[in-house]
Each structure stands twice: as C-alpha cells, then as structure tokens.
Amino acid sequence: MSPRVVLVGPMGVGKSTVGQLLAERLGVGYRDTDDDIVAAQDRTIAEIFVDEGESAFRAIEKAAVLRALTEHDGVLALGGGAILDEDTRVSLAGLPVVYLSMDVEEAVKRTGLNTARPLLAVNPRKQWRELMEARRHLYEQIATAVVATDGRTPEEVTEAALDALELKQA
Question: Does residue 8 contact residue 98 with C-beta atoms inside 8 Å?
Fold first, then answer.
C-alpha cells in the first residue's frame, strides 16, 4: 500500500486544502502527517519545538511520515520540513509526489508569516527565504511534478496537480 498522491512544499502553500480537494476528486481518503503528529503527541507542533527542540520534532515527524507511507493509500500531505530527512526522501522515490511551490510574496499573503510558525518567529520573510533556499532543491529532487500555486485558487492548483500526474478523477 502506498499513497495515490503525496504533497510536499513549504508551510502555508496549501497542502491541506489542495490535498482535501484532490482526495475528493479522486474518491480517496486524505491524511496529513502534521495532524497525525498533533494527535499522537496531544500537543501542537509549536509546543513540541519549544519543549523538545527541532531535532526531536524531526525524529517524531520521520516516524509519522514512514508510518503514513505504508498505511495510507489516498492523498498524503507532508509537513514542510519532512523532506529534510534522507530516509524520508528515499521512501518517497517512485511515488507520485507533487511539489506545491510559491514565492515569498505569496507566502506573506497566505500565512502573514506569523509567529505561530516556530521556524519563522524572528524576521519571518528572511527566514522563509532561507528555508526555501535550503529546501527547494530537495523538494525538486523528489517531485514527480511541480505545481506553482502563486495567484491560483485551490481548485486551479488541484486541477493542475491532476493534469501533471495524468490522474483520472473518481
């Protein structure tokens, strides 16, 4: 068992919204590993970062992603930093992975780059750019398709993802 579609991309790009729409269009279930982590840990991701640090969170995230990749056969959305782990990237090889991309101005519009995002607490625009510089090549490395989300509605992004993967709707 493996997911029909895996969505990756930066925080705030719309993985959850597009993922739910894709799942509806394909007639499959939707799962988000960030939601899995919050449910299993009974606390927010921000709380995990504060209480235990990023490395502890990444270990929890890696386990959640690997579990979801073997348990879920619908649309799966991964947290923005999940692709940092090499084992996760290896596990995604051969799967239909869609990298949802956006530029910093779109990120500002969508998220306000607020402090609820633990990695963007200080100078959010600069930190977002630095995160993307460090991650963009990893997203591109594992992606079957890249779909730009800038200036598009979730429905338009969903349609573009279906077209890019040449998937038929349910």
Answer: yes
